[in-house]
Specification:
By secondary structure, the chain is α/β, with parallel strands linked by helices. It is about 45% helix and about 20% strand. It has helices spanning about 5-10, 25-45, 65-80, 95-105, 110-120, 125-140, 165-200, 215-225, 270-275, 275-280, 300-310, 330-340, 355-365, 380-390, 410-415, and strands spanning about 10-20, 45-55, 85, 105-110, 205-210, 240-245, 255-260, 285-290, 320-325, 345, 370-375, 395-400, 405-410. The strands form 3 sheets. Strands 6-7-5-8-9-10 form a 6-stranded mixed β-sheet, sandwiched between helices. Strand 9 (about 320-325), helix 12 (about 330-340) and strand 10 (about 345) form a beta-alpha-beta unit.
Amino acid sequence: MNRTHAVERRERVLLLGFLSGRSVGEDDRCSAALEELQELARSAGVEVVGQLTQHRSRPDPATLFGLGKLEEARRQALERGAAHLVVDRELTPVQHRNIERLTGLAVMDRTQLILRIFARHARSREGQLQVELAQLTYLLPRLVGHGTDLSRLGGGIGTRGPGEQKLENQRRRIRQRIRKIEQALEAVRREREVRRSARRAVPLAVVALVGYTNAGKSTLFNALTRAGVVVSDRMFATLDPTLRLLHLPSHRRVLLSDTVGFIRDLPAGLRTAFCATLEELYEATLLLHVIDASSSRALEQTADVERLLRELELDDRPRLRVYNKIDRLGPEERNRLLPKSCGVAVSAVTGEGLAVLLEQIDRMLPLDPLVELEGNLSPDDSHSLALLQSTGHVLACELRDSQLWIHARVPRSVAARIRLRD
């Protein structure tokens, strides 16, 4: 077991939720938000020992919460052995400092918690750079000169950071690091574009999985492609995009992409930091919106994903809703879901509905009918042979009089690029 992660799991936190106004349904939304915050905390490797909620007509600009609620939180945290408060809002720098001063506890807001999860799950060099960029961009306006803020974004809660003593020196070094990371990520984007250009030379459609975090996208990805991508019930288990070939019933081949999960109120800074990852969505011909059909918040999560797609200017992209985890539904719940859903119901775990999903993907992709080719190909023409194998289905291949006799079924757009001799 990783020692750092073991220490993190022993850290105890108290959750603080804030509810502004008293409109209908606000209590349920606040409860759902705190439930999600608890899941985020679990994914960050900490132990939640309690939670408090404050109802106010409007937030206090200096402290967000009232002084009485902060005193109650301080008292409960001390009684339960929690040294940290986690707030279900993105705090301003002033609010962050004031809450820490009044409670004597370390404070983390929702954005910091998400960043902590990203730091734990980033595996590739690109993912690590994206996380660091998001962390530093968040930290820069929150520096107070005493060095403690740098410790909030490390591998574990309460770990010590560099502890720069001079505020301007801290800012200068952070800005320099941000520039270096941005340059490195720009190089990553250029490399991605080179790979995309190479993919465009072989006309394969891209189908991308999108959805709320922990909707089961990676499990579905593995079920369809047998890719062996790491699967976890923790939120944001997938940060790096993965591409694999997917074979459709028509024998067409497409690229299936697994991407980072969405979440409500995803900070703009995180979207900016992960734009290299999200660029894969803009290459997609079809988006598969994966929904956790077993979640009590499925409707709200679906709306949040649709909202983010609009913000990313992807709402005009063809998409298919995939209701996942139906193996967790009882007969009555299934009967209520299936007649009303404009999509496909599947279980990535049991495989139920996957054949129907593949047929639906086949139908929704732009029309490029399959045609049969038959004729001779020079053995030296490796490019044409690779094109046939990568985009279609080679039915027969024989060596006849120093020529390769080919019988293949390929999309019409590919057939137009290949010249077979009689």
